[in-house]
Design a protein that fits this description.
The protein has about 230 residues and is α/β, with parallel strands linked by helices. The chain is about 30% helix and about 30% strand. It binds adenosine-5'-diphosphate (ADP) and magnesium ion.
């Protein structure tokens, strides 16, 4: 479960995130949708406790800077941070040791689902952008986090990998995880969300539950982000 209360992140006088509150229940997927520069990555980095900000962020009821919160958070950054000289399996071992969570069955399933099983001996620098993205996702999920934030996870993946990742995300939801996914592309998240938060200029302009949707997400997005 994720709770954000009145989050503001300023750079000088500029507010990259401006008074955002939202919460995500266990077993549900929220999409954060907004144009480039809306503040999505800033919000997500704040959740991952990588920035200073004003406001409160709780992960499973614990302040996000606490060790307990960090244990239950999975963060997939916009840009995968991969070590050139570690292999795929060494990346995974590193995460398993850092978190003290060794669930090989779970990891093998992730490798299988994201079609990385035969890439385990490859070095980080030998992976394509899409493979690096998939490794970054596997590393974030290896410790079995209960709250997961994905920053533009579908960018750079081929259609097949997008389909697999969507299935993985839906399985995490079925397993009871609270999930946040940012995107600037409305069509990429069709069928994947319980709630959509439309963000622009640091603010959530509108939040929509699936049950409300008469309009397509794309039409709704344009009607809100292009309104004067
Ligand atoms: P998004 O992920 O939605 O594309 P970001 O959160 O990356 O947007 O950026 C939101 C705004 O904050 C942008 O205007 C961006 O230029 C600004 N910004 C992001 N990081 C910094 C920084 N380190 N210093 C100053 N401004 C920043
Ligand atoms: Mg971003």
């Amino acid at each position: 479960m994720l709770q954000i209360e009145n989050l503001t992140k300023s750079y000088g006088r500029f507010k990259a995130v401006d008074g955002v509150s939202l919460s995500i229940k266990d077993g549900s997927i929220a999409v954060l949708m907004g144009p480039n520069g809306a503040g999505k990555s800033t919000l997500i980095k704040s959740i991952a406790a990588l920035l200073r900000y004003k406001g409160e962020i709780l992960i499973d009821g614990k302040p996000n800077r606490s060790l307990e919160a960090k244990r239950s958070l999975g963060y997939i950054p916009e840009m995968p941070a991969i070590y050139d000289l570690l292999t795929v399996s060494e990346h995974i071992q590193f995460i398993q040791r850092a978190y003290g969570v060794f669930d090989d069955e779970h990891v093998n399933r992730l490798l299988e689902d994201l079609e990385m099983t035969d890439k385990q001996k490859k070095l980080g620098k030998e992976l394509s952008k899409g493979m690096q993205q998939k490794l970054s996702i596997i590393c974030a999920l290896a410790s079995r986090p209960r709250t997961i934030v994905f920053d533009e996870p579908l960018v750079g993946l081929d259609p097949h990998a997008i389909k697999s990742l969507k299935q993985t995300i839906l399985a995490l939801k079925a397993d009871g995880c609270a999930i946040l996914i940012s995107t600037h592309m409305a069509d990429s998240v069709e069928g994947l969300w319980d709630t959509v938060h439309i963000m622009k200029d640091g603010k959530i302009l509108k939040s929509v539950d699936e049950s409300v949707g008469q309009m397509s997400l794309e039409d709704l997005y344009f009607s809100i982000t292009e309104a004067k």
